[in-house]
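Two proteins, back to back. First:
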Amino acid sequence: MSEEVRPRLASTVLMLRDGAQGLEVLMVTRNLAVEFASGALVFPGGRIDPADSGLADRCRPFSGSDDQSLALRVAGIRETYEEAGILLARRAGADALMTGQELAALEAALETELGRKATFLDLAVSGRVELATDLMVPFAHWITPAGLPKRYDTHFFVAPAPPDQAVSHDGFEAVETRWISPQEALAAAESGRATVVFATRLNLMKLGEHDSVAAALAAARRGRIVTVCPEFADGPSGKILRIPAEAGYGLCEAPVDRTLMMRPAR
């Protein structure tokens, strides 16, 4: 009997802004060459790095902080910066989030000092920024079903976007970056113009219940996080995945073909 794969701890950020037509979320399209969710439209995120746990003194304190929750938030900020070019941080000693102009100036200064392009870690340890971990609100918690070869224990956060920072993509994991309404992302998946994995689709549906950043953040602060680890079961028409009703997604099961193909059922 093969040993059960242990889920890897990961963090995902739903970065939000108020667009001309309402609430928008930052999403990236994953490179077809990457192993997990290749070609899918996703929120920025990824596994925790060992260095994420060592940046406590570079973070704004938040309620309920412990080593794991801090590392998860730092990982989310790092992944959003690495994949989409957005840094959720303040200038050291400031109250407002860094603007695009401030971030560009700091990146240029560090590049001159280091003689190379600055990394997230360079920015974080420079003493000139404070990571805005206090603005990240827990939104959801999903664990990849047992029995699959790759499993992740993923914590989702919502956070307000910094003003005027320009999005970009790294060209490696992410090949496209965009601000998009939850409704538009779901419509793209429904029409086949985008590939959206099951957890992403359900979290877009949940996010789409709100029409502004303030409303989405307020709802997340009031909400209760229920861990979702979908379970395989036999349904009347084939295999299904079941999730707990108390997670608040408005459904309890979905056909496996629609989840594994990462597209809604037609």
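And the second protein:
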Amino acid sequence: MKCIKASALGLAFAAAAWANPSPAGIPAALQPAAGESLATTVNAAGVQIYECRATGATPTGHAWTFVAPEAELFDAKGQGIGRHGAGPYWQADDGSRVVGKVKARAEAPAAGTIPWLLLITESTGPQGAFSKVTSIQRIDTVGGAVPTTACTRQAAGTLARIHYTAVYRLFSNQKD
């Protein structure tokens, strides 16, 4: 299968997003449920993977389709603490894991950037750092948007790995 590689985002973008999360600027639709409190904030750096696929929904008959994220998760000190991948899932190095489902989305403030999200989660791993997480906000995204290159019949099957960074705010029920 052919691959298209996007240029890497500068570390300055990632550092700026991680150092300045914007909880005050988060849209109301992305607020966690009543009774949930912020458990931790993690930073992600990785790629959003898209594939050029046949579709009847576009004039060319082909479109870029989101496949999966692949990212490393970091704590506030920049230490690796886990991975984020298809499902989507967030897994801590201790094996604890949650799988999310999009509850709400909002356009990111910057063009060419994946949307901000609120996801509800379910624990699918052993007890640990992420096992009590009940929802996740994805904010302060940089990059990761659908490729701007043409998706044509000749490009069908091509993968594009678009670099992105994001801040994930993990929430849990206060009673837990």
